[in-house]
């Protein structure tokens, strides 16, 4: 998956959720929204994706700031439709309903001049899972610093 230029990243998603799978989907936007996204004025914190009663996928609570030069501006928090192949949508819907997983936007990027959203199929981490991840990161950091210190003393 060639992701192009990353505009915004949801860093909390990787901390709070275990990412099982990811899928690049297209975004249906209006003109002032794409201009704001190209300027980097988008936030994914608190956003999520969900299916409606017709089986269409929508991203909710994604903030795209208003574009100052636009005559007719958009609602910053409006739901935005996501574009994917029907087979991919059916697979995601099955995973969400049967297994109780969640769809979380991981990043917004530009690919081929179009705004794309990297959507993650996620399962919420328990508190002890998060603590374990933090402990692993700390131990890796300590190992790296010790190895640097040891390589400096050898010279």
Characterize the structure shown.
The structure is a single chain. This protein has 155 residues and is of the alpha+beta class. It has 2 domains: 5-124, Small Protein B, Chain: A (Beta Barrel), CATH 2.40.280; 126-155. The protein has helices spanning 11-16, 31-38, 86-99, 127-154; strands at 5-9, 17-27, 42-43, 48-51, 57-60, 63-64, 80-83, 102-111, 114-124.
Percent strand equals 25-35%
End-to-end distance: 42 Å
Percent of residues in helical segments? 25-40%
Q: Summarize the helix and strand pattern as letters.
A: EHEHEEEEEHEEH
CATH-derived architecture of the largest domain: Beta Barrel
How many helices does DSSP assign? 4
Mean pLDDT equals: 87
**CATH superfamily grouping of the largest domain:** Small protein B
The helix-and-strand class reads alpha+beta
Describe the structure in brief.
The chain is α+β, with helices and mostly antiparallel strands. The protein has four helices and nine strands.
Which key phrases capture this entry?
155 residues, alpha+beta, Small Protein B, Chain: A, 2 domains, 7-stranded antiparallel beta sheet, two-stranded antiparallel sheet, 4 helices, 36% helix
């Amino acid at each position: 998956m060639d992701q192009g230029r990353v505009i915004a990243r949801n860093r909390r998603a990787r901390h709070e959720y275990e990412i099982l799978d990811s899928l690049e989907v297209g975004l249906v936007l209006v003109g002032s929204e794409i201009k704001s996204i190209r300027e980097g004025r988008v936030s994914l914190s608190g956003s999520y994706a969900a299916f409606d009663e017709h089986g269409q996928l929508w991203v909710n609570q994604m903030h795209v700031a208003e574009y100052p030069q636009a005559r007719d501006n958009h609602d910053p928090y409006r739901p935005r439709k996501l574009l994917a192949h029907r087979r991919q949508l059916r697979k995601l819907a099955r995973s969400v309903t049967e297994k109780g997983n969640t769809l979380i936007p991981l990043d917004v990027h530009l690919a081929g001049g179009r705004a794309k959203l990297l959507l993650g199929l996620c399962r919420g981490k328990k508190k002890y899972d998060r603590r374990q991840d933090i402990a692993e990161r700390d131990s890796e950091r300590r190992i790296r610093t010790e190895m640097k210190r040891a390589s400096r003393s050898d010279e």
